[in-house]
Amino acid sequence: MNIDQSKIEDAVIAQAVEQIVQGTNEDYQFKQSILKRVGEIITEKVQSQVDGFLRDGLSSLTFKDTNTHGEKKGPDKTLLEFVDDRITKHLSDLVDSNGKKTDSWGSSDRQSRLGWIIQLAAEKEIKKHVETLATEMRGEIAKSIMGLTCGKINAAFADVLRDIGRKPV
After folding, report:
1. Which residues contact 83 (CB under 8 A, 6 or more apart)?
2. If we measure between CA atoms, which residue out of 54, 13, 7 comes closest to residue 37?
3. Which of 25, 51, 78, 167 has a C-alpha 20 to 30 A away from that of 151?
4. Exposure letters 23-57 (e unless 16+ CB within 10 A, then b)
5. How many CB atoms lie within 10 A of CB 95?
6. Which of helix, strand or coil describes residue 49?
7. Distance CA 78, CA 75 (A)
8. Which conformational region is residue 47 in: left (phi greater than 0), alpha (psi within -120 to 50 degrees), or beta?
9. Contacts of 99 (CB under 8 A, 6+ apart)
10. pTM value?
């Protein structure tokens, strides 16, 4: 007799799971833990297959770049190479001071889009630090001005009192 042991094991497991799910076992928590574990196993299997498909697909799927008329140009590229080229081109495009793509050769404020993005980020950080410093310095400047003003007023008041004391009434 030709009996495959793995088929017998699968049948026994399938029947045990069916009986648990159908309610022959009254232990609800046990049923839930079995169902949860089965769900986890299925999720792991599906995830590993999807990951493998994406990994294989991204490295083996090829594209051919086209010109504006849809005619193929250049060598075949994988999806990752294609995306990398597009990102590099996008970041290398020349833009004006507003970040708009420009082909104007007469413009003196042209720079790469990456340079423009870095400039914006740097300006934002510098502005934030300057505002923080200005806020901190306002208090110090106000104290200094108040001290100088009070000192000058006190000196002027003392001079007035001295002058009053010297003049005959």
Report:
1. none
2. 13
3. 167
4. eeeeeeeebeebeeeeeeeeeeeeeeeeeeeeeee
5. 19
6. helix
7. 10
8. alpha
9. 113, 116, 117, 120
10. 0.45
pLDDT at position 37, please?
A: 87
pLDDT tens over the chain, length 169 residues: 566 777 777 788 887 777 766 665 556 677 777 888 888 988 898 988 888 888 777 777 787 888 888 888 888 888 788 888 889 999 999 898 888 888 766 667 788 899 999 999 999 999 999 998 888 888 888 888 888 888 888 888 888 888 777 665 5
Tokens of 122: 């740097």
Distances (CA, A) of 73 to 65, 66, 88, 107, 162: 6, 5, 18, 31, 95
* H or E segment to which residue 64 belongs: strand 62-66
Q: Look at residue 160 and give its three-state secondary structure.
A: helix
- For 89, the token pair is 């081109």
Does residue 3 sit in helix, strand or coil?
Answer: coil
Tokens of 150: 């009070």
Q: Which two tokens stand for residue 135?
A: 């806020």
Tell me what pLDDT residue 4 has.
Answer: 74
